[in-house]
Structure formats: C-alpha cells, structure tokens
Amino acid sequence: MKLAMPSLKKVALVVVGLAVVVLLFLWQALPRILQSQAVKFVAEKTGHQLVMDRPEFNPFQLALRLGKLQLSDPDGKPLFGFDGLLVDISGASITQRALVFDAIRLDGPAATLVELPEGKLNWTPFLDALKSKEPPPEAEKKGLPRLDIRSFILAGGKVDFADRRGLGAGFETRIEPLDLELTDLSTLPDDEGKFKIAARTQFGAQVDLVGQVDLNPIAVAGTFNLADLQLARLAPYLKNVLPVPPEGVLGLSASYKAGSDGDKFDATVDQIQAKLANLRVTVKDAGGPVASIDSIELKDGRFQLASQELTLAALAVTGGKLALPGIEHPPGFGALTVEAIRVALAERNAKVGRVLLTDGRLQAMRQADGRIDLQEALKSLSSSGGGKPAADTTETPEKPAPEAASPWRYRVDKVEIANLGVVLQEAAVKPALELALDNIAAQAEGVSENLQAPLPVNLSFDVRSGGHFEASGKVVPATAVADVNFKLNDFVLKLAQPYLAAHTTLTLADGKLSTQGHVLYNEKGPNVKGEFAVRNLRLIEPGVKEPLLGWRTFGTRAFTLTQKKLDLGELRLNGLESRLHIDKEKNVNFKRVMKSSGDEKTAAASAEKAPTEKVPADKNAVPPAPTFIVEI
To answer: How far, CA to CA in Å, does 607 sit from each of 111, 597, 603?
Structure first.
C-alpha cells in the first residue's frame, strides 16, 4: 500500500493557519490572561491590590503596551504606579542569542517609600510575601543573562519619601521630575551602555547622573552633580540637634569609577568639588548665638576604596562670624584655608600641608567688675539648649570595653595666622583704655601628635597707637618650655594715660618704650635677659607748657628677670628735664598734681582713731610670699 504525501500547498496552509491562530492568541487572548492573572496573583500571594489597564500586544511589531497601573497596600495606600509602559522587542534576539530590546519606555512612574518606626519599609510586607518559603537549591555559578537594551527611557517620574522613625519623624519630601535615559545597556562582552539620570527634589535640589556601564564584567564610570540643596528643608532630621533650621545652599559634583574583575571590587571618586554657601546656624535657641559662614568649598578631592585614602587639594572657609548676645563687634575671620590634605584611613594617619587663617577680628572689654564681656557671652554656647534631647537615665548592662585601636597620627607642616586684628578695652579706668593690635602674624611648623617635639614659632604685630613687636624661637607644647628672642620698638606710652589720669592731673604728652632680649621658660620659671629704654618722656601739668618731668633716654643695657629677682644692672638717665616749684605757702608742684581721695582720707582718719589691738596669729594663715629682690 502506498501512502500519499501531503502536497506542499497543504503544508503551507497548515503552517499559516497555525501562525494566524498563535498571532490571534497573542493579540487578543494573552492580554486578557495577563491582566486577570496578575491581579489575582498579587491579591492571593500578598494581600495587596493591583489595578491595571488591559495590555496590548502587537505580534507583528513585537511590542507590548500597558496603560495605567497602580499597586496599593491592603489599606489602599499607594506603593507604585505608572501612566504607561512600552516594551519593544527586537528581532535581533534570534541572531544574537540574547534578549534584545529596541526600546523600553516608562511614563509617569510614581513610587512611595516610607521608613517605619520598627526599622522596616512600607514595601517590606509586599516583598516578604513574594519570597519563597523553601530555601533555593544550590545552583551552579553562572554569568549574567545575555541582555541588550538599546534604549531605556523613564520620563516624568516621582518618588515620595517619608520618615516615621524617631530621629527624622515628620520628614517628608518628593523627588520630581525624575528622568532617566539609558542607551546601549548590555551584558554582552565588550558592550558599554550609556545612561543619564536627572531629577529635582521637592526641597529644590537638582540631581544629574551621567555615565556608562558595562555588565560583563561589571564596570561603571561617569559624573555626578547635585545643585541647590536647601539645608532648611532638612529641618526634621536636625531638630534634635539644632533648635532653629539651618540656612544654606549645598552643591556637589564628582567623577566616579567602579568595577570588579570577578575577584576584587574597587571604586574611585575623584574631581570632587563641593560648595556650601550662605550657611547660618543658630547654636542654642532662637535669639541666641548665631554662626554664619559665607562659603565652605572643598576642592579637587579624591577617594579610593582599595587604599582607603582621601586626598583634598584644599578646604576653604570664607566669611566666618559668630554673633553673640550683647556683643557689638562679633568675632570673625575673612578666610580659613587648609591645603594639601591626605587622610589614610587604614593607617590612621593624616597629613596637612598648611593651615592659614587670615583677616580675623576679635574685640573684648573688661568691665569695671572684672568680668570680660566676650567670655561671658561665650558661656551661652556651653549651656544646654532646648534642641538637645533629654539625657537617658535608663540603666544599661555593662558591655566589655572594645579593644583599643591604634591612636591617630597627624602632622601639619605649617600653621599660619595673617592680618589678625585684636582690640582689648579696659572699662575700669576713665576714659576706657583701648589697646589695638593690627597685622598680627603668627607661624608654627611641624605641628603633630608628638607634643614633646620643639616647634619653631614666630609672632609679630603692630600696635595701632604706635609700636611694633616681633618674636621668634622654639616652644615644646607638652612641657610649655620656651626659648624665644623678642623685640619691641617704639611702643607709644600715651596708651597708659587713663591709668595716670586716675591718680594725677598730669598728661603723658610723649614717650616711647623699646626693649629686646631673650626669654627662656622651663620648670625653673622664666629667665629673661635683655635691655630696655624709655625715650623722650614728657609729663605736662594742666595749663603749663613746660614739662614737669621729662628726659631723652632712661634705661639699661643689661637686665635680668627671674622668678625671684630683677637685676636692672646699670641704669642710665640722659637729658633730664624737671621743673620744681614751691609757692609761698610751701606747696610743692609735685604734690599739687596728685589727686586726693575722700574715701582714702576717711579711711586713714578712722584707722588713726581706732584703738590698736593685737591680733592672734592664725595657724591656717597663708605664709607670706618669698622675698622678691630688685637690684640696680
């Protein structure tokens, strides 16, 4: 018996018919099945609610479209949703033996992320429900699936974030619009994918992330930029530390590179640039001390994960000021610069090339009662503020002390102060004395954790009313040992007029002090050797042009001062000019210029009238100080 072979025409018709049936199934039946099964699976598996439009699949274009989708928790609170999804599969998937997508586009995605008090997220119940209860079988290690996405676009997205934990409770923000573009994202060997992420947060920050990624092996590189981050919007996170929200705008940019060769992962962040502008922080309570800084800039930073090393070209702080209650002229500075910073975290070692403080200003007044206004105002910084949390008095079991880590080592090659101005006022005398020091410059080299090492130091300043001082030498911080040479030129003595006016009617018309020498300070106390001279001194009586007392020079070429002794050596007086006048009532002009005190006279008279009594010796009395010897 001979079997009849089906004709080619019949075979073709059968194939075409099957294809039509498959296409009709994919076009009409499959979307309905996907919709119903997805809704049912989510409800039965997780207890959450899924609402979605019916998908549309075009078998001729291999494109899947889905309209709106919304995922909510059992209470109806939204978790995730979007307005539209397009997945366009490429026919090249067959030839490349990979899943190739010509385009994937997600429009209007919206996600809600909430951190709960127990340390979980609002997504935790949903994700836990999807986990398999059976442990996964041990699978043989395989590479990444073969995947190639030629274009991925996320448009008009938003993320709502809320913190319900204790520290940041009440903090809420929204990131929108969130836009993401990926091109040529592939797990195929030697394929690199480019991506771009752009987002603006509800508190004004703009985030841009651009780069390229290679998934086989894993490697990513690109740039990151953050602009216009408003610190005031972070108030809920800082309310337990600062009573008033800080002000300021932060910007940050960097380049990054990370990857793994299969055995070792490494990451590098470099070209780090950051700037915090117009920073204003209320330190204690509203109306209390306020610290303000014009800008803080971080320049050319770099961090490498493998070496655990951070380097910075410079950290610059400009326009610092501390406003204190009751202080008319608050302390501040023009610029603080820290250069050539290197921090080796693994080695616990830090090195700094230079620290420079410029254009600092400081003014303080000692009141008549002896209190210093600036010191009293600074006490408000140490007192507890309303923003600090109450101390926890709950007893906790003692834990074994952790093993002590090796101490940090540090070194600063040079510390400098330039153009510092200090004004010191004394209100105990009338008129108030004011000592103004300008152009203060100071230097120290080789500052480190080794406090036994001698530090080369230099100091100089100008006295605004006249005079210049400079000193140089070495100081040992640990023992306060100092070996310093000093020099003071032409210090104008008119500055002492308020003290002279308190006891006499004289005017200090002229006079300058100059001195120089060497100071050695150690455990034995000070030992000063040098010379001094007071030149062109002129003391004038009221209504008289000629000086009551004056000279051209008065001083010594060699004096010694120790803790117990002052040796003035040979005192020399040149060009003495004095005027002695005795009137007919035998009053001497020297006595006439002295001011009398009614209180002193009364006290003296009372002392004369009071009977003399012997006071018994007090066994607890402090013994008198050692005799201080003055030799000329």
So the answer is: 90, 15, 6
In contact, 209 and 238? CB cutoff 8 Å: no
* Strand, helix or coil for residue 593: coil
Among candidate residues 294, 303, 290, 301, the one with its CA nearest the CA of residue 338:
301
**Do residues 378 and 437 touch, judged by C-beta distance below 8 A?**
no
Instruction: Tell me: pLDDT of 242 over 90.
Output: no
Q: What angle do CA 120, 122, 126 make, to 5 degrees?
A: 100
By the 10 Å C-beta count (0-12 exposed, 13-18 middle, 19+ buried), 168 is classed as middle
C-alpha to C-alpha distance for 129 and 266, rounded to whole angstroms? 35
Cα(536)–Cα(493) distance, integer angstroms: 10
N-to-C CA span, the chain: 151
The residue type found at 384 is S
The most distant pair of C-alpha atoms in the chain lies apart, rounded to whole Å, by: 173
pLDDT digit string, tens, across residues 352-406: 999 999 999 999 999 888 899 988 888 867 654 444 444 455 555 555 655 667 8
For residue 420, list its beta bridge partners: 440
| pLDDT at residue 608, as a whole number | 47
Residue 35: which pLDDT band, with cuts at 50, 70 and 90?
A: confident
